[in-house]
Write a structure and sequence with these properties.
The chain is an alpha/beta fold. It has a domain of about 200 residues: Rossmann fold (3-Layer(aba) Sandwich), CATH 3.40.50. About 40% of the residues lie in helices and about 15% in strands. It has eleven helices and twelve strands. It has an eight-stranded mixed beta sheet, with helices on both faces. Helix 3 links the parallel strand 5 and strand 6. Helix 7 crosses helix 11. The longest helix is centred in the first third of the chain and has 25 residues. The chain is globular, with a radius of gyration of 19 Å. It starts with a strand and ends with a helix.
């Protein structure tokens, strides 16, 4: 049994991961801004904005999984919001790092989330792999600083693993629940020209990859946490409609309309390139859901 501390444990991925780790017999605790001692789960108080963290959270942990960060698609990307998106990831990682360093804590591993936004908001024929540089745009720079904050743990001799994650498919919420609304209404339509790629991963696979990152001492550095099958926005939407047995004949939603509604954030929907899963496959990880149709059937079956 390992003692595992998770930041962002109340989020979509965090909740699923906590459940799977506990089912495997691990002792799991989360970092929480809630001081309510009546909480049904084991938690430790922290407040990254004010650099506060319960020292016991670090002292009692063998592994730390860092998932904390404001939702990238929740609000418009104003300058203030961009700063929140960056600081919620970087400041929180630095707070954990400083406490680990202060205690001279001998962690077995620090495992951090990152995102495929590292490679930039572009659509190209290039297949991006972990050795490629971070893009010089907002998401690229944000992910680079996020990963730099995580890689500080290498200085302490702590095995550090970073999972650059694509679109997480989960039936409990997230992006998929929003994508289902027009499709269920019979209004399935590609976004923009539909040629942008949409790297994705089933929630079960993502959780299993985090668990593998705990158990496999050879996993160090960055890994792309995406399914090995490539899909464009067009083919993804068409597959979703087929699984739901809904029509797929509406014209594409124009690029200008999406941009007028979402501003700069529209690039999350209108751009995307292929992301290689080869490095993860080289670890002998076997995907539960390597194919999109099977992943959607699993998530959407009644």
């Amino acid at each position: 049994m390992a003692h595992i501390l998770i930041s962002g444990g109340s989020g979509l991925v965090g909740k699923a991961l906590c459940t799977k780790l506990r089912d495997k017999g691990h002792d799991v605790a989360i970092l929480s801004r809630n001081k309510d001692i009546r909480a049904s789960h084991k938690s430790f108080y922290w407040d990254p904005e004010n650099n506060e963290i319960d020292p016991e959270a670090i002292d009692s942990s063998d592994y730390i999984i860092h998932l904390a960060g404001a939702n990238i698609a929740e609000k418009s990307w104003t300058p203030k919001r961009k700063n929140v998106l960056l600081e919620s990831r970087v400041r929180s990682a630095k707070l954990i790092f400083n406490e680990v360093k202060r205690q001279n804590k001998n962690l077995k591993a620090f495992i951090s989330a990152s995102a495929i936004g590292y490679y930039g908001l572009i659509t190209s024929e290039k297949i991006f792999s972990e050795g490629d540089r971070a893009a010089d745009d907002f998401l690229g720079r944000t992910c680079q600083k996020w990963e730099e904050a995580a890689n500080q743990f290498c200085e302490l001799g702590v095995r550090t693993t970073i999972l650059r994650t694509g679109l997480v498919l989960d039936k409990q919420g997230g992006a998929l629940s929003k994508m289902l609304i027009p499709v269920k209404m019979g209004l399935a339509s590609p976004l923009g020209n539909g040629k942008q790629y949409l790297p994705w991963i089933h929630i079960d696979d993502l959780c299993e990859i985090y668990i593998k990152a705990i158990e496999d001492n050879t996993m160090k550095g960055a890994y792309n946490a995406v399914a090995p099958e490539y899909h464009t926005n067009l083919s993804f939407t068409k597959t979703l409609a087929q699984v739901l047995k809904k029509p797929f004949w509406f014209p594409n939603i124009p690029t200008f309309l999406i941009k007028s509604l979402l501003g700069e954030m529209s690039m999350l929907l209108l751009t995307g390139s292929r992301i290689s899963a080869s490095k993860l496959l080289s670890t002998s990880y076997t995907y539960k859901f390597p194919k999109l149709d099977k992943a959607l059937i699993n998530l959407l079956e009644e």
